[in-house]
Write a structure and sequence with these properties.
The chain is an alpha+beta fold. The chain has a single domain, classed as Cathepsin D, subunit A, domain 1, CATH 2.40.70. 15% of the residues lie in helices and 44% in strands. It contains 3 helices and 10 strands, in the order E-E-H-E-E-H-E-E-E-E-H-E-E. Strands 2-3-8-4-7-6 form a 6-stranded mixed barrel. Strands 9-10 form a two-stranded antiparallel sheet. The relative contact order is 0.22.
């Protein structure tokens, strides 16, 4: 993980790997070679005040991600919009998950919100502008 510097309180940049989850499913079935999976390592802003994973539309197109249904979003300034969402494979600090991503047409970098951090069991260290595992031995998920 590379940290790039502060963009505001609770916001900093890390590199993440994203991949076409449909391609990965084809690899598991033996229908696609692993080196044919569309994947990229991209900069992402960690924003502890955001909720979801947001990907730039250009990245979604390069990865060949199929678009999902429209969902309502609300920006920090109160504006609302509808954006499409689709599942994507994401890897950060050696941990990976598949989760929905919102597609933002004019965005240049990915955005990592609280749901992504929770799914990977990562904590935000604002003092050192980094994300860290809650437990370095592996993710621990609390259930009832």
């Amino acid at each position: 993980m590379r940290t790039r510097g502060a963009n505001g309180v609770g916001r900093f940049s890390v590199d993440i790997e994203v991949a076409n989850n449909d391609d990965l499913a084809l690899v598991r079935r033996g229908l696609l070679k692993p080196d044919q999976v569309r994947r990229e390592t991209v900069p992402a802003i960690v924003d502890s005040g955001a909720a979801m994973l947001v990907l730039p539309q250009a990245l979604v197109k390069r990865l060949g991600l199929p678009l999902g249904g429209a969902v309502k979003v609300r920006y920090a300034d109160g504006r609302g919009a509808q954006r499409q969402a689709k599942g994507v494979f994401l890897k950060l600090l050696g941990r990976d998950t598949t989760l929905p991503a919102l597609v933002e047409p004019k965005r240049k970098t990915a955005l990592i919100g609280a749901i992504v951090l929770e799914a990977l069991d990562l904590l935000v260290d604002c003092t050192h502008q980094r994300v860290v595992p809650r437990d370095p031995r592996g993710a621990i998920y609390e259930i009832e």
